[in-house]
């Protein structure tokens, strides 16, 4: 008995899984910051039924780097999606292998400092086992002066108010 695949309807009108990577790439080249509504639609369109592949995860990092001032919904989506990819979709589930940790660290080095530190912290919070060096690196990143400066900057009211 064959099962028909239900078509997902979204803002981006994706119909096939192979279109997911192309969608992310097009958003990277558009050079615009995603709105909260677009992020919600992207979440539904991309990961309603599946998790991100390694190529899609790389493309999401590219999209992170392409945005000047991402909305909070984007950062949460990125952290949720990549945590799922690293911790729950890799085998053995819940364990971060050294190769996976190396890849994650390389990718987060070119993200905004706060986003990269938050992603590492979230991955480690959900993982059952991770290399000790990754734990030490994440602690060092969270303690870095640029993280404290970024957090202080977010807490200040904008001058336009």
What would you say this structure looks like, in words?
By secondary structure, this protein is mainly α. The protein has one domain. The chain is built from eight helices and no strands. α2 (36-47) packs parallel to α4, α3 (54-66) runs antiparallel to α4 (72-88) and α4 packs across α6. The longest helix is centred in the middle third of the chain and has 17 residues, at 72-88. The protein is globular and about 35 Å long. Residues 1-11 and 155-161 have low confidence and may be disordered.
Strand count, sense and barrel status of the largest sheet are: none
Uncertain ranges: 1-11, 155-161
Order of helices and strands: HHHHHHHH
- Estimate what percentage of residues fall within beta strands: under 5%
Can you give the helix content as a percent range?
A: 55-70%
Please tally the helical runs, counting DSSP H or I stretches of 4 or more residues: 8
Q: Radius of gyration, rounded?
A: 17 Å
- Backbone shape: globular
Structural class: mainly alpha
Question: Which whole number gives the mean pLDDT?
Answer: 85
Annotation, overall tally of beta strands: 0
Structural domain count: 1
* Head-to-tail CA distance between termini: 61 Å
């Amino acid at each position: 008995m064959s099962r028909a695949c239900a078509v997902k309807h979204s803002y981006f009108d994706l119909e096939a899984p192979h279109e997911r990577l192309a969608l992310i790439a097009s958003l990277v080249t558009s050079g615009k910051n995603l709105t909260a509504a677009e992020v919600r639609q992207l979440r539904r369109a991309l990961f309603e039924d599946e998790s991100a592949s390694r190529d899609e995860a790389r493309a999401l990092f590219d999209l992170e780097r392409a945005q000047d001032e991402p909305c909070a919904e984007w950062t949460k989506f990125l952290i949720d999606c990549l945590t799922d990819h690293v911790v729950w979709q890799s085998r053995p589930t819940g364990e971060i292998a050294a190769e996976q940790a190396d890849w994650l660290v390389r990718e987060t080095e070119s993200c905004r400092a706060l986003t990269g530190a938050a992603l590492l912290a979230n991955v480690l919070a959900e993982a059952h086992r991770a290399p000790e060096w990754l734990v030490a690196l994440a602690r060092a990143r969270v303690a870095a002066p640029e993280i404290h400066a970024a957090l202080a900057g977010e807490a200040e009211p904008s001058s336009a108010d």
